[in-house]
Design brief:
Elements: E1 3-7, H1 20-30, H2 75-82, E2 86-92, E3 97-100, E4 108-112, H3 115-128, E5 134-140, H4 141-149, E6 156-159, E7 169-171, E8 175-179, H5 182-193, H6 196-205, H7 210-223, E9 235-239, E10 244-246, E11 257-263, H8 266-278, E12 291-295, H9 296-303, E13 314-317, H10 321-325, H11 332-336
Parallel strand pairs: 1-3, 1-6, 4-8, 11-13
Antiparallel strand pairs: 2-5, 6-7, 9-12, 10-11
Helix pairs in contact: 1-7, 2-4, 5-7
Length: 350
Amino acid sequence: MKTFTALTLLFSCFSVVSSTASFARNLVSNSRHSPSLFGVPRGGGLFGGGKDEKTDDGATATATESKELYPALSKEEIEEWMEHIPVYAVTDSNGAGVVLKPENDTSVFYFFLNPMQANATLTQLKSANEEMDLKVSAFSLGKIWFNLINNPEKEVILKTPGAADSEGEATKGVEYRLVPDTRDLLGARMLLTMSPEDGEKMKEAGSMTPEMAQAAIKKAMTEATKFNATYNEIPVFTIAQMRMQKQPADGEKGEPITLLPMYFSLQMMVSTWQQFMAQAPADVQGVEPAINLMSIHDLVEMMQKESEIDWRNVVLVPTSAEAMVGKKEASAAAVADPMATMGGATLGDV
């Protein structure tokens, strides 16, 4: 049974507005050679209708014309599918999670996709609890998805700081909150609210001006119909035309496997698309990317049903370890294996 340390303190949620203006300008500025990255139909390529729920005949990229249905994934397969994705949380020196009590009698535990947000929480908690030995620990999203995030009735042991394990109290109903990167929340809202007309204006201007960025942010913050919560609405992005190939392991025979990549980071996806197009033949340089956007919860729900999409040939792409840690000196081993520090190992204080 898991043990958690309970803290009673006021904990404020993160604001999505933080640094969003510069992010919006940089994102679209980086995409100025493909301004159609915004204002294109969302969801038409893989997940059905976009904003107006219309679909294009034959648009489903991974299904055959005969509408072949692939079998649903089991919970074990989904856990394995997400196993390599790191999430971060504040724990004590023994790896016990720190449960917060922000209001009333609720008990809340936060997991973060961005380690910098986890470190910001660590700094805040340390300033109010100097006597506690706290750290940021990394965990596997696959191992906690069904076991914790979607299992609020799981029984855990809560104890006050400094108390012995024997003094802990068994409880249920801890609310587990998965917090996305605020920049990707903004990006998801912008994709939902930027119209083809907005995209044409950017094409004409050549890049996003500060005025366009402010207008786009205002529209995203006031008109988006999804991704308005600061937790448990996790956007996942993909471009229907993008593929990556998985080569056979050393010593194994067989053909490479073609995979559809899905990204938690919109900016990483845009950068990858630009690299892809830079190496593409001249006759396809003008291809417009068919961006698809969905929440990870909706995605997992779809994976548990028969589907025209073969989810076994879809790969979830984490942000690189170097980008996540935010330090140039991140080791080559960590970059190659972002899970290398999991299992309770600390990422260190900022």
